Amino acid sequence: MNSILSEKLAKASVDARYLLSRGYNREAVVRFVGDRYLLSKEERLVIYRGVYDPITALIHRRKRVSRDFIQRKTLAIDGFNVLITVESALSNKPLLLCDDGFIRDISAVHGRHTLSDITLSALTALANHLSKLNPKQVFFFYDSPVSHSGDLAKLTYEILTKYNVACEAKAVKQVDSEVLKSGEIVASSDYAIVSRANYVYDLGGEVAKELNPTIIKL
């Protein structure tokens, strides 16, 4: 993972910010700077998830809420997004402190997830954290096309209720839309959700910080 701290990645980040600020497509920007600096797949993922133009970064920052804001409000959670961030912290994988203030993992996980002891530990850490926030209701949504997402939803419900968190957990086809319409506040670091939400709590990042992970700022 030393490549994350490389000089070429730092330079690529500067170029990417500039191009994004000029309105270029994110995928095209990552491809361009990735090819120019001969970045690895992992390094390109760092750019894709971590680098934002200043205006977008500011908009995202203004949507973020503190833990006190959640008291007695409904919280809709992007399940896999949050869970994988916490699992990464528990697995001693580095996390990114991104330009918009969110903490994101750099796990190249697309449409797959494996239930493990780490999953149980991550859900327990999430339940413990949520119990201290005193939300009115928590909704956990997982992507139903992912294997065992129904089992994961059931496990999530069981663990959160043990911590006296009022919770519903389910596997759904369209997580983004369910999250956005179900809570006064959303918990996700996914761009597609953050960009459309009014209030966002970086649940994955806040729980991860409690686990003392390696957090890298570009």
TrEMBL record:
Pfam families: DUF434, DUF5616. Coiled coil: none annotated. Residues 8-63 form the DUF434 domain. Residues 70-204 form the DUF5616 domain. This is DUF434 domain-containing protein. It comes from Thermoproteota archaeon.
